């Protein structure tokens, strides 16, 4: 008794606490027993008296022991043992937290605050390109009245507008009970995971994929398996292998202007993917948040090709910015009911305010024209960017941008490590290296829409310098 095991990674006072609790729990110390005096304990433990005092103070606070004037320190005879742990070890707990950030991202977050930084990392349009709409001046009561138009599937006027858009833009024949309005596409995914999957299930995604960086899968206990992309999109041969070996329960793809590669799945590959989904009865979730930013004609969506097998996700975030947080799920009506119920159960109700704002924008008679202007502007930015980028094509490989927000560049020279990418941060050029989306350390994603006449030259200057430095490595 009274000897510590000397666990180096735990502070001594905590070791003392743990030992005393252990003695109380296993009956070596009984309720009402008196502990040796502090000075004596310090001697036997070979520690300073203050360390013992610290440990005893904590045990008093937790209710294991009591100090009685004139009688010394006694094991509590009351509700002792209610608190099973001496103290929550926050540092240890947070160490395996799924929300913990990559070191690169921690540094990047700091740089994002600096006005000198060029932010090509953020996955949204810059403010000056987001179409603006005149909002009517609502009275408070009017807004509250709009609340009555909320259903479990969302604010009904917005739901109807989105149904119309899906029919027109996606050529998907949907009815309103097949569409659930969500707080962005991310909430849509979160709900799908909750309702369709269980802890330990496996999901196939593209490799690289922005989903790789989202903590929602790990926190739900879902395993992600990456399937390589080739020039046509997700490789179905690899996917089939995975289905056969890993019991894949869901295929989650972003087939149009994929995040991060910007690549669009070919029609042939879409059909092969659907065939595979039918063969093994595995649902496909089509994350389709970029298709309205296309400079080229697109192949039909997976949902259009296979309405029964495919769950379709959309969002307004890529046009209006993510602060509006409006997305949707198009799926079989029974599933929609389950998803809506799940949302109510976890109390993720959707506020009417952003939905009213989104409805106003979608109803604007100039909406389509503004969207077209945006697409034209992006196309021009993409061409200006590519023109300059060609000058660096000995070192960087890239594909023409056909829409969406991203350019994906791959380093052609010697292997890069994660550390090498910090050069970009040091130069205050904020980009997204591929290791945020996969195990790859050779590519980067750039949100080219954030480059304009003013900062394009600055960007290429810095990019050239970094390229030269990387070549010398
Ligand atoms: C491919 C893709 N899907 C979904 C989302 C999430 O969209 P939302 O802002 O609507 O939650 C993003 C956002 O970056 C995305 O890039």
The CATH fourth-level homologous superfamily of the largest domain: Type I PLP-dependent aspartate aminotransferase-like (Major domain)
User: In whole angstroms, how far apart are the ends?
Assistant: 59 Å
- The helical percent reads 40-55%
**Portion in strands:** 15-25%
Protein name: PLP-dependent aminotransferase family protein
Domain HTH gntR-type: 10-78
Pfam family, one: GntR
Coiled coil: 368-395
Q: What are the salient characteristics of this protein?
A:
Arc Repressor Mutant, subunit A, 41% helix, transferase, binds pyridoxal-5'-phosphate, 473 residues, DNA-binding, 15% strand, Aspartate Aminotransferase, domain 2, transcription regulation, alpha/beta, transcription, Aspartate Aminotransferase, domain 1
């Amino acid at each position: 008794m009274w000897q510590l095991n000397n666990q180096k990674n735990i502070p001594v006072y905590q070791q003392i606490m743990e030992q005393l609790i252990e003695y109380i729990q296993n009956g070596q110390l009984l309720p009402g027993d008196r502990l040796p005096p502090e000075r004596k304990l310090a001697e036997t433990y070979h520690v300073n008296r203050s360390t013992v005092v610290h440990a005893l103070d904590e045990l008093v606070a937790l209710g294991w022991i009591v100090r009685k004037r004139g009688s010394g320190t006694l094991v509590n005879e009351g509700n002792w043992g209610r608190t099973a742990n001496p103290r929550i070890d926050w540092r240890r707990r947070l160490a395996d937290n799924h929300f913990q950030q990559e070191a690169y991202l921690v540094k990047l977050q700091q740089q994002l605050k600096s006005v000198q930084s060029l932010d090509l990392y953020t996955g949204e349009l810059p403010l000056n390109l987001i179409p603006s709409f005149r909002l009517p001046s609502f009275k408070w009561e009017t807004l509250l009245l709009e609340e009555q138009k909320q259903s479990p599937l969302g604010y009904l006027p917005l739901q109807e507008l989105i149904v119309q858009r899906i029919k027109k833009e996606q050529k998907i024949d949907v009815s309103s009970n097949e569409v659930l309005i969500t707080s962005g596409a991310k909430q849509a995914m979160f709900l799908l995971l909750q309702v369709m999957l269980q802890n330990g299930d496996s999901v196939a995604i593209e490799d690289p994929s922005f989903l790789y960086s989202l903590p929602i899968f790990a926190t739900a206990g879902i395993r992600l398996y990456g399937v390589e992309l080739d020039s046509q999109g997700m490789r179905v041969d690899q996917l089939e292998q995975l289905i056969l070996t890993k019991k894949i329960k869901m295929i989650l793809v972003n087939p149009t202007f994929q995040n991060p590669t910007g690549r669009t799945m070919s029609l042939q590959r879409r059909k092969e993917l659907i065939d595979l989904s039918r063969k093994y009865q595995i649902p496909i979730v089509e994350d389709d948040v970029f298709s309205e930013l296309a400079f080229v004609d697109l192949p039909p969506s997976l949902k259009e090709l296979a309405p029964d097998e495919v769950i379709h996700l959309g969002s307004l975030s890529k046009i209006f910015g993510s602060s509006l947080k409006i997305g949707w799920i198009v799926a079989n009506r029974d599933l929609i009911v389950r998803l809506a119920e799940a949302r109510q159960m976890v109390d993720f109700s959707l506020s009417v305010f952003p939905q009213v704002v989104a409805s106003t924008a979608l109803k604007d008679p100039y909406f389509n024209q503004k969207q077209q202007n945006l697409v034209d502007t992006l196309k021009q930015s993409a061409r200006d960017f590519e023109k300059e980028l060609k000058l660096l094509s000995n070192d960087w490989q890239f594909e023409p941008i056909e829409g969406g927000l991203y350019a994906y560049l791959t380093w052609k020279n010697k292997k890069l490590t994660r550390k090498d990418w910090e050069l970009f941060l040091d130069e205050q050029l904020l980009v997204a290296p591929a290791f945020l989306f996969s195990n790859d350390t050779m590519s980067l994603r750039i949100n080219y829409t954030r480059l304009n006449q003013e900062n394009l030259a600055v960007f290429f200057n810095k990019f050239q310098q970094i390229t030269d430095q990387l070549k010398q490595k």
